[in-house]
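Q: My collaborator sent me two sequences in one message, no labels, and asked for predicted structures for both. Can we handle them in order? The first one she listed is below.
A: Yes, handling them in the order given. First sequence, followed by its structure tokens:
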Amino acid sequence: MSGRSRVWVALGSNLGESKQILQKAWRRLGNEEALDSICLSSPYITEPVGMDSSNLFLNAVGILETTLPPESLLVVLQQVEKEFGRSRKMVGKGYEDRLLDLDILYFDGCVLTSSKLVLPHPHIGERLFVLEPLVEIDPEHIDPANGLTAVAMHQKLLQQMDAGIVAVQDIKRDTWA
């Protein structure tokens, strides 16, 4: 396994047949020569966070192993998004509905800030749709930027929601069947 890195990837969709899209995208990633799929969380149904949309999201988190460096992996993920019909419009700022969204959450213990990529993903601790599936598959994973486990970050976000510090994020675990 030398020369291989472990990567945690968030998958999301709120357009089309989201469950099939995420399953097909996960299989597509596993078929990539430089990637091996290790595990995929259950799907989670969530309301949009940080954007206005009437479409619910389906989200999951998966673990991959790769021989690629982080920015090369990003190129592969963006190519897979494009294959599934994702277009990244540069007009305006903010989030928009999408057929497929693939984000690198963690790349081993790498902390990186470049013009193309920030690792770990800067919004993990604010998003229940990331933390809930992450806790399902790797509860003791330690965030290299803050030193907290996935469980601790999840508990912290739930406490912030309970205290009214951040808006409540509704989430429901689903199945792939």
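Q: And the one she listed second?
A: Here it is, processed independently of the first:
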Amino acid sequence: MIKKKKVEPLTGDSLLKKVRELETLSKEAKARECGYYTVTKNGVERVNMMKFLNALIDAEGIELDGKMGSNGQGGRSASYRIRVQSNLNLLIGAAYTKQMDLKPGDEFEISLGRKHIQLKQIDPSESED
């Protein structure tokens, strides 16, 4: 039996490039070719699909764990959709105001269109007194 030299598993851009080159192979074959396998004492080759798939997710820059807020807690992310509440109010949540770095007291001019609302922030220095 010929022993194959263990290759260091590919990561990042080199992993993505190699996977694209191997597009016709099965996912197990791709994982093996990218170095995501081990050889047991008995000489049996085992493909480590979880490590391979996690490396692909990392290489793509996909964040599955969710980003932690500044207070150390996760939370809901902005979906960029809101729904009219039962009292006919529209509530723009804190995720949006934080993303826009808005502070208490910031003012906006509201422009209504046929099916849209536009908010234009009022510059405090141009305030009408």
